[in-house]
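To whoever picks this up:

The parser on our side crashed when reading a file containing two proteins. I've narrowed it down to the boundary between the first structure block and the second sequence. Both blocks are reproduced below exactly, byte for byte. First block:
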Amino acid sequence: MPEWTPTAASIRRWLVIVSLPLAIVLLALWEPDYQPPIFDAQVHYNQNAWQRVRVEAIANGIRELNVRWLLVGSTPNEGTWRLVEALPERIIPMWVPEVDRDARDRWMEDDAQLRAMEQGLRQRPYRGVGELWFNRRDIDHPGVRRLLELARERDLVLHLRTDAGAIREIFAIDPELRILWAHAGVYDDADAVTEMLGHYANLWIELSHRNDATPQGRLAPAWRQLILDHPRRVLVGTGTYTADLWFQYRTILSNHRSWLAELPEGVANRVAYLNGMALFGLVETVE
């Protein structure tokens, strides 16, 4: 009988068979690595999501994905407090006007909303206001001026979806106010945002829905340089204003972690969670 000589193919098959039990064991023991932790600086649990996305599902997902803190402003505000009840140690509540999307940029003209703002900020431990919509032309409106007074009196963070001109006007009124610029100005390019960060020490930005900053999941060079130039003033966010975005939550976070991994570790940790903690004066309390 001729002597059998193993072929490369037979060796590969044998290795697969031999290694199969180990692979099964490793799969059973494997836990996903969701590092670094995340401070999600752009979260909404709006009424349009309540029936499709249960609070319990959000709470379980947040814990699994190592999201330690969520900056939440919902329409109506009840959505925020539903999350606070489920995740009291992780939710940072923000007051928002309880208006529909078509009227959200005219909240300052609604006397009922202004009264609700004062009452809400007085009765509940909101840490700020927003995401809030207005434009430069609204700065002199009495409702906006009252908002700025309340922010000063109560040390509130203003999470604003507005234009660069409005940001400049606000800091001209009071340079000590703290502003988190929603979506890094939405349409402003990296050079314009860099200039704003260079001028205003109390301005932070969050990068939710800025796909132009991270095309194909990688940092665009200009945005990478912005982060390296201002590593203490950039945050990440998911922007969950619809139920569909909650269903994409895991993917959005995965994309964020992908481009964060391109940064030096210390910078990545600042953007992922330390900057948010510093902005709101938080200490680590989540087990």
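<<boundary where parser fails>>
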Amino acid sequence: MAFVTIKQKETLEIWGELNSNWVFIKNYPFTACSGQLRPKVKEGVKQIPEGIYEIEHLNLYSLFYLSLKISYPNEFDKPIVEKQGRSNLGGDIFIRGKNKTVGCIPIGDDEIEEVCYLASKILSGRIPVYNCPKDFRKSAVVG
């Protein structure tokens, strides 16, 4: 299983592996969004981070019904900010219920219940989270 968030479209996609092929399972629209299409560079900027992360754990006691913690900042993020002379990247980024955010990914209560159920079946393994500013599958990447 893999989660793909596309900030520009404000969606969370769930993908699963079946017979060595990736298949689309379901799309969940964000119920709120904050920040801009750019990476999270410090705490308090209300940004969804951009990069490749993992689900760290399922939070059954969330203030936002249920939530899944994303492994932000990761080992890629930390050296970048150190090189730039910054220190506090923030943290506590979750995919969660409800409909408000200051940097998390809210998808609503019924939807997070579904996602948490799916994740609970996989959580003994690794669930990658690809946080993308836009859908690179639909446009050329220049560089």
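After patching the parser it read the second block fine. The first strand starts at residue 2 and ends at 6. The mean pLDDT is 89.
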